[in-house]
Design goal:
alpha/beta; two-stranded antiparallel ribbon; TIM Barrel; about 15% strand; about 350 residues; 2 domains
Length: about 350
């Protein structure tokens, strides 16, 4: 299995890492089995977060007895130093470990720096001095903040969305990370489910030696696919190149990545899914999206008050209400949903 170094951390991790967020939806027994199979299969890098409900607990239950065999990253949504200390203490307890390799600020709306009134960065430095964390990282969905973090020189790693649907500016960001010796951890390698072929996605990402994608895994079959992809010969096949070109033509322009930072919606609209329902239905089995439950979700779009919450929270600068209406009209035309207007 191919290895890569995470920037100046010099941590050597397998090129395809395990994103633990989806294991929230697995039972404890299933999660333990999947995590142990992954480690036995050669995956030595696991990324989670304090906010991913019981995912830290599942890692602790499955892998704590083999702590020296893998690299562990988690995240804190804390807005001040005291809350960071509380989060870190709880993460260490749940993970059943006395140190975390990469401790990340989780999608902050600003770049924490020394001297800030909130004391976030100082708290991370204190934890590092105490041996509770080894390196300080940051995650973000907003390009300008990601660029600022890289240029600041304060962060050992950056976690940012990256896939073959990424823009030229985002590709340049990976190159700047290489120049600044900042480890680049790629989230959303399947673009929130819009990319359905892990083999093409993995082969495309393999072109960037400093990029380590984390693949969200919930089922053993998904892990099996990842392990198979990681062992395939490098390089994109002509068929994969054609499929990527087709996806790029269909997904050019603005589209919802499904990050979910627009939620919760006051009208109860599942924005991160409804705003891209047309794309999802073209790439996944339709049956799951034409149930009475999903028809009810889509009808909620009629209740949108245009309060501005989703627009202000979108890290990609999109217009979610416009995307909702566009996808609602498509859904009406392509299903049996009666329009209430």
């Amino acid at each position: 299995m191919t290895r890569a170094k995470l920037g100046r951390t010099n941590l050597e991790v397998n090129k395809d890492a395990f994103g633990v967020l989806p294991l929230q939806r697995a039972s404890m027994d299933d999660a333990i089995r999947i995590l142990r199979k992954a480690l036995n299969g050669g995956i030595n890098f696991y990324d989670t977060a304090r906010g991913y409900t019981d995912s830290e607990e599942k890692i602790g239950a499955a892998l704590s007895s083999r702590r020296g065999e893998f690299i562990l990253a988690t995240k804190t949504p804390a807005q001040n130093g005291e809350d960071l200390k509380k989060d870190l203490s709880l993460s260490l307890e749940k993970l059943k470990t006395d140190y975390i390799d990469i401790y990340q600020f989780h999608n902050p709306s600003f770049i924490p720096r020394p001297g800030d009134a909130n004391g976030l960065y100082e708290a991370a430095l204190e934890a590092k001095a105490q041996g509770k964390i080894r390196f300080i990282g940051i995650t973000n969905h907003k390009l300008t903040l990601a660029e600022e973090a890289v240029e600041s020189g304060l962060y050992d790693t950056l976690q940012y969305p990256f896939s073959y649907l990424s823009s030229e500016k985002e590709i340049e960001l990976t190159k700047r990370c290489a120049e600044k010796n900042v480890g680049f951890i790629a989230m959303k390698a399947l673009s929130g489910g819009l990319i359905t072929d892990i083999f093409s996605a993995q082969a495309w990402l393999a072109q960037y030696p400093n990029v380590v994608p984390i693949w969200g895994i919930q089922r053993e079959s998904e892990l099996d696919q990842l392990l198979e992809a990681a062992e395939r010969p490098g390089g994109l096949t002509p068929e994969q190149q054609a499929a990527i070109k087709k996806d790029l033509s269909e997904l050019s322009g603005d589209f919802c990545r499904g990050c979910g930072y627009c939620l919760p919606c006051p009208a109860g609209i599942p924005i991160n899914m409804a705003a891209r329902i047309s794309l999802l239905m073209k790439r996944a089995p339709v049956a799951g999206y034409i149930t009475s439950e999903w028809q009810g979700f889509m009808k909620r779009i009629d209740n949108c008050t245009h309060c501005g919450h989703c627009t202000s929270c979108c890290p990609y600068g999109l217009d979610p209400p416009a995307l909702l209406q566009k996808n609602y009209q498509w859904y009406i035309l392509n299903t049996d949903l009666p329009h209430s207007l």
